[in-house]
Write the structure tokens for this entry.
Amino acid sequence: MRDLLRCCVWLLCLWGGALQALTVTDDRQVQVTLERAPQRIVSLLPSLSETVCVLGACDRLVGVDRYSNWPQSVARLPHLGGLEDTQVEALVRLKPDLVLLARSSRVTSRLESLGLKVLALEPQNLADVQRVLLTLAQVLALPEPALRADQLWRELQAGLRGVAQDMPVSLRGARVYFEAGAGGYAASEASFMGEVLQALGLNNVVPASLGSFPKLNPEFVVRADPDFILLGETAGESLQKRPGWAGLRAVRTQRVCAFERSQGDILVRPGPRMVDAARIIMECLKKHASA
């Protein structure tokens, strides 16, 4: 009887803990209250999908956006479109108890009007990546969430330091331009990728004062004349056709890293694979510097 009583008390404590509400403030500065840890999650941002998985909760994802493709188990989930064309009806049919998405997503209000819990998290720099790790660890109700998030963050930082130590001395201080997206959207010093470049000892020609991912006039790059050009997404047109770019040092010497799609996916996602991104950049710079 005594053992049975202890078991009942333990179950009541466990049940009570599961029902303990958690309130978090998302990147819209909106307070979101969850009555219990979500078990059916839809993620509409690849970096959030990857972060959920690295925290050990990949099995809670029931749907993702069009571009989420890592780890392999995510690729097998229902894909629900992108920022502009989210398949709302298909999403609702999945009966999620939480939807993770970007602050800039246009579907947020509609999902909330349908009674869905929405949490907007859109990391822009490394501090944001650390914060999102902690927030999701708390939302997922992981054991000792702060400790788990801190462990992953320390591993990420150690990985970046390791890649930086492997960077050839001859490349340190090189001036680089990183184009993160089609249309001339660059990663500045203030972005997570700008901070990765800095960690590698590289100089970003796009200053933090322009914002994290400014849309630049081609003339800006002509004036900066970087040593290397990095393209997170392969440019649709030849770089020589951009006004003034044929005379750029990096174009003339073919010091242009036009990454494959699979590499670009890693490079432009502020999440757990940023160490892989740093190594991809280093290897490409080494290859083109010696060409």
User: Anything to note?
Assistant: The chain has two domains: 21-143, 167-289. DSSP finds twelve helices and eleven strands in the chain. Confidence is low (pLDDT under 50) at residues 1-19.
